[in-house]
Structure formats: C-alpha cells, structure tokens
Amino acid sequence: MNQPIELKAGERIDQLYSNDIKIIQNAEVFSFSLDAVMLADFAKVKQSAKTKIVDLCAGNGAVGLFISQKTKGSIAEVEIQPKLCDMATRSVALNKLATQISVYNFDLKDSLNYFKKESIDAVTVNPPYFADEKQSKKNPNTYLAIARHEIKTNLEMVIKTSSELLKNNGKMYMVHRPDRLLDILNELQKYRLAPKEIQFVYPKVGRDANMVLISAIKDGKLTGLKINPPIVVYDKQDNYTDVVSRMLYGK
C-alpha cells in the first residue's frame, strides 16, 4: 500500500497532462511555468538507461520530471533552496520515479563534489534570468527573488558548471531571455560549448520574443548553428497555439 504524499501549507498538486506528470506547487514559494515545459520539450535526451542527465537550478523539479518520460536514463536535480528540494523530492515520490530521479540540495558551483567531471551526457538549466544589479527591483519574496535574479548564482557560473559536467559531445539545453543572448553566446564559447540550436518564443504574433531556447555541444564545431522556427504561445483569440497545446495537453 502506497503512503499518501504529504501536502504542506499553501501547496497544491498540478498536472502536466501531456505526459501524466503530477507536481507539487506552491505559489508563495515556486511554481513551474511555460518555460520549464518548453525546455523539457526542447531537450533531446537519449533513451538509453546509461544516459546521465543533470538539471541545474531545478526549482521544484519540473524539468527533470517532464524529461523523465523521454528517457530511461538517470536524472539528477540540483537546487540550492531546501524548501524547493523538499517539494521536488515529494513530487518524485508522487510520480513513483525515485529509482530514476535524485534530488540534491547544494549550490551548483559545488557540482564536481557530487558528480564526476566530464561524466554527464546532458545538462538542462532554467536559470535565474535577471542580473543582480543594485538598482534592479527584486521580489520581496526571497524564494521568488532567488529563482528569478542572479543572487545565488549567475550566467557564467551556470555555463561553466555545465561545461565541467558534460562529457565530450555532451549537450546543454537552456531557456533564458532574448536580451541576454549575446552574454549567453559569449559565455558558451568561453567554456568550450558550441551553440547549435536557437529557438525564439513569442507571446503572440507581432510581439517581441520573450524567451529563447538554446542548445550547445561540448567541444563541438562553431559552425552549423541552426535557428529553429519560432514558437508562438497564443493565437489571436488568446488560446494556446497548436504547438503549445501539444506540449501541455498532448496530441
């Protein structure tokens, strides 16, 4: 008989219907959003049980949980905030995925204390988007501020750590904001990661892109960058477009 999963104050269970994954959420602490769904859909991970995947800045575990349906490989979730790790751990148990997904509570800069250098096949990361500048306005909620601003880590550390973890020809998948794209491309090349795919996400036709998905290969050639067709989230009637509806609800 399965033990019921405990829900704490403010928590609820949400479901990604496209792959039957249930996730413990708490709007006061952290809730996954469309960027996590898109990153998991964008990432091309091998199905082999030998595949090793690390999800950095894991939050409540959404990306790793979604990716678990695409591979038999092992997935390590790395998150610095203990409360989010606790939510992720219970979500893993809720989905009966404890043999595939492990949750680690540590600063991602310490990753090589837990994983062998250049041993990982794929790294996924949905990092804080906003630089930690003195004049930038931050959410008064500490949990949300850390998730959104580079308070505990920064873009360079995320990319450096990803490179150190990845084996030769290993792949990194990231979702970020278009206004940081130049910084991202510079840091990727600095740390031996060749960008291979870029895909912009637009809220609606005629609006500026508000997300960008990027893949890169460790020690890959710097030629052959592909710009994928754009993703548009909402149609003129404010309904999800077919491509986004597929990600959320399946075919």
Structural write-up:
With 251 residues, this protein is of the alpha/beta class. Helix content is 25%, strand content 26%. The chain has seven helices and eleven strands. Helix 5 runs parallel beside helix 6. The two termini are 33 Å apart. The relative contact order is 0.14.
User: How much helix, percentage-wise, in residues?
Assistant: 25-40%
Oligomer: single chain
Biggest sheet record: 9 strands, mixed
State the end-to-end distance.
33 Å
Shape: globular
In terms of per-residue confidence, which ranges show pLDDT below 50 for 5 or more consecutive residues?
A: none
Percentage beta strand: 25-35%
Helix-strand sequence: EEHEHEHEEHHEHEEEEH
Radius of gyration, in angstroms, nearest whole number: 17 Å
Report the mean per-residue pLDDT as an integer: 91
Number of helices: 7
Task: Offer a quick outline of the entry.
The protein is α/β, with parallel strands linked by helices and 251 residues long. The protein has 7 helices and 11 strands. Strands 3, 4, 5, 6, 7, 8, 9, 10 and 11 form a 9-stranded mixed β-sheet that branches. A two-stranded antiparallel sheet has the order 1-2.
Features:
two-stranded antiparallel ribbon, 7 helices, alpha/beta, nine-stranded mixed β-sheet, 25% helix, 251 residues
